[in-house]
Amino acid sequence: MALLSASGLRRSVDGRALWQDLSLDVDAGESVAVVGPSGSGKSLLLRALAGLDALEGGEITLEGRAQAGWPMPRYRSHVTYLPQRPALDGGTVLDHLRRPFTLAAHRHRMFHPGEAEALLGAFGRDGAFLRLDAATLSGGEGQLVALTRALLLSPTVLLLDEATASLDPDTTRRAERVLLGWLRGAARRALVWVSHDPAQRARVASREVPLQPQPVTA
Ligand SMILES: Nc1ncnc2c1ncn2[C@@H]1O[C@H](COP(=O)(O)OP(=O)(O)OP(=O)(O)O)[C@@H](O)[C@H]1O
User: Fold this and answer.
1) Do the domain assignments include residue 148?
2) Distance (Å, rounded) from C-alpha 184 to C-alpha 14?
3) Which residues line ligand 1 (CB under 6 A)?
4) Would residue 217 count as lying in a domain?
5) Which end of the chain lies in a sparser environment, N or C, as judged by fewer CB atoms within 10 Å?
6) How far is ligand 1, taken at its centre, from the CA of residue 161, in Å?
7) Atom 27 of ligand 1 has which residue's CA nearest to it?
8) Which of 162, 148, 147, 150 is nearest to 192 (CA)?
9) Under a CB-based contact definition with an 8 Å cutoff, are residues 122 and 170 in contact?
10) How far is the CA of 95 from the centre of ligand 1 (A)?
11) What CATH number does the domain containing 97 carry?
């Protein structure tokens, strides 16, 4: 049984069909890239897989259970979407990493500052990074906070929407190593990448799922 499965997905925007009958299976342990031209609906697909965006048809299952049958906060704690530009408002980096642990969906988890420091260390940042004002971070630094926060929350599937696109090459490689290490760290995990960088896809993904642009109908 696939870990995350989508079948017969249908979605249009402003009367334009993005996908008509899209299916995708992601097995445990897999790292998959979704590819397609700008505007083909890659972000919308990842958001739909995360339960953040409505579908017009089709079904998504996690561990064989329909998305609609999961309590949504719990589903989203398993299937986590990381956008290219994470929204980070006031507070320090430490505040941002700690805050999700106060939510009901994560209340069974404990925040361990040492784990956060270890992850940030793997990304090449020291403990002082935790004290920075999150609202003033650069785009790449914001992505590191989002990646760290997501990993600390131990999801099952991470959906990475250009989630390293603002990082310098060295930090990108570090992030890729951390993410692939995370994937190998437990049996039932998976990664789904959207990346416009073919070299990155070749490094991190074992296969590519193409999103074909649909013909425009009158
Ligand atoms: N909330 C929305 N309402 C209406 N149209 C939307 C919405 N979100 C996205 N779209 C449109 O849907 C199409 C697909 O958008 P999406 O962001 O998924 O593309 P993408 O494949 O990720 O593109 P890129 O590679 O440029 O990031 C685009 O034409 C976009 O303008």
Assistant:
1) yes
2) 41
3) 13, 18, 36, 38-44
4) no
5) C
6) 12
7) 38
8) 162
9) no
10) 31
11) 3.40.50.300
Joined together, the tokens standing for residue 121 give 């260390």
The domain tally of the chain equals: 1
Q: Give kind and range of the element (H or E) at residue 74.
A: helix 72-78
Task: Tell the residue nearest (CA) to atom 4 of ligand 1.
Answer: 13
φ and ψ at residue 163, rounded to 5 degrees: -75, -5
pTM of the model: 0.93
Structure tokens at 126: 């020291």
As for the ipTM of the complex, it is 0.95
Q: Is residue 196 part of a domain?
A: yes
Tell me the residue range of the domain where 89 lies: 4-210
pLDDT tens, per residue, the chain with 218 residues:
899 999 999 999 888 888 888 999 999 999 999 999 998 899 999 999 999 998 899 999 999 999 999 999 889 999 999 998 888 888 999 999 998 888 877 778 888 889 999 999 999 999 899 999 999 999 999 999 999 999 999 899 999 999 999 999 999 999 999 999 999 999 999 999 999 999 999 999 999 999 876 555 54
Length of the chain as a residue count: 218
What is the position in ligand 1's atom list of the atom closest to the CA of 46?
Answer: 18
The answer as to whether 215 is a domain residue is no
